[in-house]
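U., I forgot to send this yesterday:
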Amino acid sequence: MTGSGADLDVACDDLGVATITIDRPPDNFFDPPLLEGIATALEQLARDGRARAVVLRSEGRHFCAGARLASGTPDPAAIYAPAARIFAAPLPIVAAVQGAAIGGGLGLALAADFRVATPEARMAANFARLGFHQGFGLSVTLPAVVGQQRAAELLLTGRRVGGDEALAIGLVDRLVPLAEVRAAAGELALEIARSAPLAVRSIRATLRSGRVEAFAAALEREAAQQLLLFETEDYAEGVRAMGERRLPRFHGR
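Result:
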């Protein structure tokens, strides 16, 4: 299977490894149509039967910087409907993370089963620093990979984590030089593709038992909380401070 759409390229090799490439460099901001395209590609790859594992990667300097907040307040419902489909897709996913995976971009990386990153990678669930609630199912996925206590710290502080620390706390699974990140992600996907495909899907479904439903439920609460906090002065100040590259001055209103 090969194909392409707006800012998205999909291909599958003869070894069972499919590649979905986001092509919105340098920051690869997402919007609902892009996420719908990823979800649809994952579902079609699963139905097609040739793909046994998927590499999710991006062109340009960064993996994904989330939604472009400077262009207006995002619509959580429109974003999180395809996010639920991405997490529920049956094929295992390896994300190749270079540069930044920030906010919803970190959520997209954590929707994958594994993450291969570089020492230069920067990851942050920076929602609180912008004055609103985390999204993209991070309420479920982040504690699952780093533990409840570390997840709380990362969510409440919004601080950035570099590649070395990300590996140490389990936020990424393999760390390689930038020039090797795509190849390393492909190698991990190929390792998976060499296993029996029915067994892989069955094992993955068991490991994710209950988490798909928890992810969907978290998206509903996250969207509701985001809509409430989008109306606050703190959110306006957070976005303004980000654009001006300064520390925000929050007042709790």
